[in-house]
């Protein structure tokens, strides 16, 4: 079975309750279901992982680097300081898309630069939970453009 890694970083485990005026009311489980719907027609399944610890996210990227066709990554605040996550994603051989629920450029200045974005196949910001669906569609497109190299 072809799988896609869905990686959510720190503080995203409390989506739905956490500042819903910024992040919306969808939970990480709702988001995982939405991504699964988007990729189901292609026969893909989703491996959802949310963790508040950068080292665990790094381990997840390494553990799934050869078993997934691509990834959707919301690093949360690790977009600004997650250097070990950046190194793990640099070694991840498949395409991946960075996602942020809020428009990071409409927020505080410190959120305006992602250390991960230059490595990503694309970035989706400011569209709430729907952004994950768009990221899934983009990943399907990117993987269609790639030679089949894993299942």
TrEMBL record:
Single GO MF descriptor: 3-dehydroquinate dehydratase activity
Subunit comment: Homododecamer.
Catalytic activity from the UniProt record: 3-dehydroquinate = 3-dehydroshikimate + H2O
Official protein name in the record: 3-dehydroquinate dehydratase
A GO BP annotation: chorismate biosynthetic process
EC number per UniProt: 4.2.1.10
Enzyme class of the recorded protein, top EC level: lyase
Site (Transition state stabilizer): 18
Binding site for substrate: 74, 87, 101-102, 111
Pathway(s) of this molecule: Metabolic intermediate biosynthesis; chorismate biosynthesis; chorismate from D-erythrose 4-phosphate and phosphoenolpyruvate: step 3/7
Residues annotated as the enzyme's active site: 23, 100
Keywords: Amino-acid biosynthesis, Aromatic amino acid biosynthesis, Lyase
Alphabetized InterPro entries for the sequence: DHquinase_II, DHquinase_II_CS, DHquinase_II_sf
Coiled coil: none
Lineage: Bacteria, Bacillati, Actinomycetota, Actinomycetes, Pseudonocardiales
Role this protein plays: Catalyzes a trans-dehydration via an enolate intermediate.
Residues that span the membrane, as ranges: none
Matches recorded under CDD domains: DHQase_II
Species of provenance: Amycolatopsis iheyensis
Similarity remark: Belongs to the type-II 3-dehydroquinase family.
